[in-house]
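Fill-in record for TFIIF-interacting CTD phosphatase, including NLI-interacting factor.
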Amino acid sequence: MDLRLPFLSSKNEKLILVKKAVQKLENMLFLTRIKENKLPSQQKTRPVLLLKPEKLLFRRYPSLFDYKICIRPFSHLFLFNLAHHYEIISFVPGTRNEQKFIYDHLDPYGCISYRLNNEQIDLNRNYDNLIVIQTEENQWGEKFKKNLLNVQEWNGKKDEKLFLLDQFLSNLLFVDQSTWSRTIDSYKDLPFFECYNHVQKRIFHSRNFFFSNYDNFMKKVRDEKVREFEDAQIVMNEQLLKEKAMSNWITPIIGFLKTLIA
């Protein structure tokens, strides 16, 4: 891309050109801007998954100077799998630097479509195909009452429960969306992971009367998902290195161009 400015007769014309150059560079770096406190409309209709990842996918703990975060096992795989089918919208409060630190560890592959720090932003989405994950009572207020899937918060210890949540959300895609609200409401005030696992085990045994080792079957499914993700991870890590190299020389240019606009 040629970033040299041609001779222009007026200062306004120069500013317009610089702004266009900045916009092009930011698009190359996949920097999403949210205008007018409202998400842009979906280009293609997809189910939407809204979540607050803290206490679901990570926990933060105080450290000597600031804080440290602990990522829940299989969080990267969880986001990667669901991003194929859902538009994932995440809300994490905090400063821009805090958010960057968290998402650099939680979502290095950019599986989350929108990373919000303001709950007042209009999602601009059809609530009929919206699932909102809640880990604490009244976490979202009354706004998404009919869309809430209540799950237990992560206790910070190693577990594999995200596979169950992944399976539940993936299975929803195979049923009529008009039943979603009723389905998620059936887990209200119940320990989601234990109840869903019990339901799946009962279904498995009813369909596999002679081959009834449910735990072995689930382990096989998990292992296959892990292998698929690890294969994809090799390609994604290579792409991250390329994007980082590009960012190292483009970011200073963006900063310089913005000083021209100011």
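KEY FINDING: The two ends are 23 Å apart (CA to CA).
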